[in-house]
Design a protein that fits this description.
The complex is a heterodimer of chains A (380) and B (171). In chain A, strands 3-2-4-7-1-8-12-11-9-10 form a ten-stranded mixed sheet, sandwiched between helices. Chain A has a two-stranded antiparallel ribbon with strand order 5-6. Chain A contains twelve helices and twelve strands. Chain A is globular and about 55 Å long. The longest helix of chain A is centred in the last third of the chain and has 17 residues. In chain A, strand 11 and strand 12 form a beta hairpin. Chain A starts with 10 loop residues before the first strand and ends with a strand. Chain A has a domain of 140 residues: Thiolase/Chalcone synthase (Peroxisomal Thiolase, Chain A, domain 1, 3-Layer(aba) Sandwich), CATH 3.40.47. By secondary structure, chain B is mainly beta. Chain B has one domain. Helices cover 5% and strands 40% of the residues of chain B. The chains are: A alpha/beta (380), B mainly beta (171). At the A-B interface, helix 4 and strand 5 of A face strand 6, strand 7 and strand 8 of B. Bound molecules: zinc ion. The site of zinc ion has 7 residues of chain B, from loops.
Chain lengths: 380, 171
């Protein structure tokens, strides 16, 4: 085992910016991305020329979208890497920006995600292996939902409460694709698959998110307001192993990845104030609150029902609205989660602020076989 | 695509259906597999459906079959052999797609997660018209269901899972 993030020099999120997640529009991906980066630069009050490296996460744009976009900030000679890791592309970009700064290679790095649904093929379908049936992610999650209800005697209404909470949170998030609080009855309308309904599934959309990562040296050199910086104390990226056939890969993978991140950061689930999870479908939030250790296995419905995952509860889960309501435009999603946790830890989340937030976690899954967990903490 | 005319011969993939095909003058031994890398079409219609899998020298079984390398131990090449697997297993969960129909049929699409008796788990389309009678732990078997005809008029069959009849429900 080599080093962990905390063994290297400290790194901080010093700037955040987003382009609202939205229905697919005529805007080019470059316009979306530049909006987010310019907002992050303004937030950190630094110029583009101070940024030494950039990690651009996309899953849906094909070859090399980053250069054609970032050159419009000024061609500074910046080091550029494209990052693709399915839904976890943005989270992976964040990790690499953190490592670039933590190892001392750069003092300031940009991690961003931008995407528009396009026509990029799934290379998984090119491995040469045939399948008995082609089951869409929606149907896989409908199966997982039924399995959860069966294992823990949960009702469709109890699971739908995840979406009620998250749509309510997103109503106070100007960057969210959906900004409308919903009643349980509204959430239960429009069945899609199994007990999943339309408002319990993340929407298709586009958007962009950017975070700037800096070292103490970068903060000092550029005169960045250190009091608004948030330290990244854990970054773990794992892929699946072999689990018992009846167990969910994403749940077991999340459990392992989170456990490693807690260990490396020297914190535990009980210490968390804000958490953003990959709640692309409502049942996922229940499974992940359990796998992260916020509550015991099978207790997700009760944890939610008692209001413990609400803003103002024990730990605000998906205060942004999560993937269900803020949206899941792929590349931006994981970066947007880190932006939300940063905003919460700064105490700048306005109407959706979880009071006194000091420790936060962002969790993302990609293609059901990649998992990233980041842990962030306010400065001492 | 599933041939709708076969629907009238009984539940597709069951001996009823096969009798229908025989009445229709089709030679069952000439059935063609839609996915020949995944299952074998037995010469005798009454024989159980057989899936194709792979097993590495360490005894790890894969379905779908693949020669690229074992997910458990990394064995590859000559250390992986193709084997026959029983098309039987246990349903762990199921769900109906409310806005999708099973290809070529008027029935809603119902999918299930199955743990095959040979070990691997698969998510598959179920050969059922609704979720009635489905439950976690239900024994299921794969049936060959006519889904069309090839250029020379031979029936093309695909493998779908459905509840095992009592005589099949061992395992
Ligand atoms: Zn093996």
């Amino acid at each position: 085992m080599g080093k962990t993030l905390l063994d290297l020099r400290p790194v901080y999120v010093v700037g955040i910016g987003l382009h609202r997640y939205q229905k697919v529009s005529k805007a080019s991906y470059a316009e979306l991305g530049l909006t987010a980066v310019r907002e992050a630069l303004g937030d950190a009050a630094i110029s583009w020329s101070s940024v030494e490296s950039a990690f651009v996460g996309n899953a849906l744009l094909g070859m090399a979208p980053g250069r054609a976009m970032l050159k419009h900030l000024g061609a500074t000679g910046i080091t550029l890497s494209q990052v693709e890791n399915a839904s976890a592309s943005g989270s992976t970009a964040v990790r690499h920006a953190c490592l670039d700064v933590a190892t001392g290679i750069s003092d300031v790095s940009l991690a961003m995600g931008v995407d528009k649904p396009g026509s990029v093929p799934f290379s998984m379908s090119w491995t040469g292996s045939e399948r008995l049936s082609s089951i869409s992610p929606l149907l896989s999650f409908a199966l997982l939902t039924n399995d959860y209800m069966n294992r823990y005697s949960a009702s469709p209404e109890q699971i739908a409460q995840v979406a009620v909470k998250n749509h309510g949170n997103a109503a106070n998030n100007p960057y969210a694709q959906f900004q409308k609080a919903r009643t349980l009855d509204e959430v239960l309308e429009n069945p899609v698959a199994g007990s999943l309904t339309r408002l319990q599934c993340c929407p298709f959309g586009e958007g962009a998110a950017a975070v700037l990562i800096a070292s103490d040296e970068g903060i000092e050199k550029l005169g960045i307001d250190a009091s608004r910086s948030v330290q990244m104390i854990g970054s773990v990226s794992r892929t699946e192993r072999i689990y018992a056939p009846q167990e969910s890969v994403i749940v077991e993978l999340t459990r392992e990845t989170a456990a490693q991140a807690f260990d490396e950061a020297g914190v535990g689930p009980a210490d968390l104030d804000v958490v953003e999870v990959h709640d692309a479908f409502s049942v996922e939030e229940l499974l992940y609150t359990e796998a992260l250790g916020l509550c015991a296995e099978g207790e997700g419905v009760r944890y939610l029902g008692e209001g413990r995952s609400q803003i103002g509860g024990d730990c605000a889960v998906s205060a942004s609205g999560g993937l269900i309501a803020m949206g899941h435009p792929f590349g931006p999603t994981g970066v947007g989660q880190v932006a939300e946790v940063t905003r919460q830890l700064r105490g700048e989340a306005g109407a959706r602020q979880h009071a006194g937030a000091r420790l936060g976690l962002a969790h993302m899954v990609g293609i059901g076989q990649v998992c990233l967990v980041h842990i962030l903490r306010v400065r001492d | 695509m599933r041939e709708s005319s076969f629907e009238h011969g009984g539940v597709p993939g069951t001996p009823d259906c096969e009798r229908f095909l025989e009445r229709a003058g089709k030679d069952m031994s000439e059935r063609v597999a839609k996915r020949p890398t995944l299952f074998i079409v037995p010469a005798a219609p009454s024989r159980e459906t057989v899936l194709l899998g792979t097993r590495c020298s360490g005894g790890h079984v894969s379905f779908p079959p693949q020669q690229m390398g074992c997910e458990v131990c990394g064995a590859h090449g000559e250390d992986i052999e193709t084997i026959e697997l029983a098309a039987s297993g246990t349903l762990t969960t199921y769900a109906m797609a409310h806005r999708q129909q099973r290809p070529g049929s008027d029935s809603p699409l119902v999918v299930g997660s199955i743990v095959l008796d040979a070990g691997p788990a698969v998510e598959v389309v179920l050969d059922v018209d609704d979720t009635e009678g489905l439950s976690s732990g239900l024994r299921v078997v794969g049936h060959l269901v006519p889904v069309g005809e090839d250029e020379s008029g031979r029936p093309i069959v695909d493998c779908f899972f459905a509840a095992a009849r009592p005589s099949e429900a061992r395992g």
